[in-house]
């Protein structure tokens, strides 16, 4: 009886050891598989897909911009500056009377420089005659100003008005939007949505699942203002004068485009 009982106990112990051994083998296998997977990911990294997205927003401009310059000459620096100031004050007074705010008028360049001439020399016939001495022959002043027009439908009127009051050059009328950042943000949102939609379709075609976004980058954003060169106007010998042809200024729509790249981890 004791012998039978001892054999039964021995058999149970043997079975238990076998089960423990099997469990150890399974655990080692799972651990090895996990270790291999981590090593593989560490070596090669997780699987990724990268897609590009584009977002474009169209908007009617609400700001007009143009530049003009005043140039004047005088026998000395003071007289040149006085002449320039007379014309400039007339132009600025006109703009302010029309409701253009001080913060929307900005001097972009001011230059005072001498004019030069070479004195004539009396030289003997058939002999070398060196150039005469360079001497100052008066002064010239040039001042450039940029103007922001918030009443866009009056941009052509303002161009004509500054020309009639002594501007010697008017150029680069273009229309923009005052809040460019809001347009860029909207275009960026559309670009991200475009990239996500492309990624979902690509994952479906590949038979994989998107886990998460692992990287985001934004390319150059593109803003296309409507340009208009305001140069062809009636002129006389003194600069702008006589009958002024006020240009028509169609605005159309501006385009703001943002490009993004999204990288997704997949499995």
Characterization of this structure:
The chain is an alpha+beta fold. Among the domains are: about 1-45; about 65-175 and about 235-245, Protein of unknown function (DUF541), domain 2 (Alpha-Beta Plaits, 2-Layer Sandwich). The protein is about 40% helix and about 35% strand. The chain contains 4 helices and 11 strands; from the N terminus they run H-E-E-H-E-E-H-E-H-E-E-E-E-E-E. It has helices spanning about 1-45, 75-95, 155-165, 180-205; strands spanning about 50-60, 65-75, 105-120, 135-150, 170-175, 210-220, 220-225, 225-230, 235, 240, 255-265. Strands 3-4-2-5-8 form a 5-stranded antiparallel β-sheet. Strands 1, 6, 7 and 11 form a 4-stranded antiparallel β-sheet that branches. Strand 9 and strand 10 (about 240) form a beta hairpin. Helix 2 packs antiparallel against helix 3 (about 155-165). The protein is elongated and about 135 Å long.
Task: Describe the SSE topology.
Elements: H1 2-44, E1 48-59, E2 63-74, H2 77-97, E3 105-118, E4 134-149, H3 155-164, E5 169-176, H4 180-206, E6 210-218, E7 222-224, E8 226-228, E9 235-236, E10 239-240, E11 254-266
Antiparallel strand pairs: 1-11, 2-4, 2-5, 3-4, 5-8, 6-11, 7-11, 9-10
Helix pairs in contact: 2-3
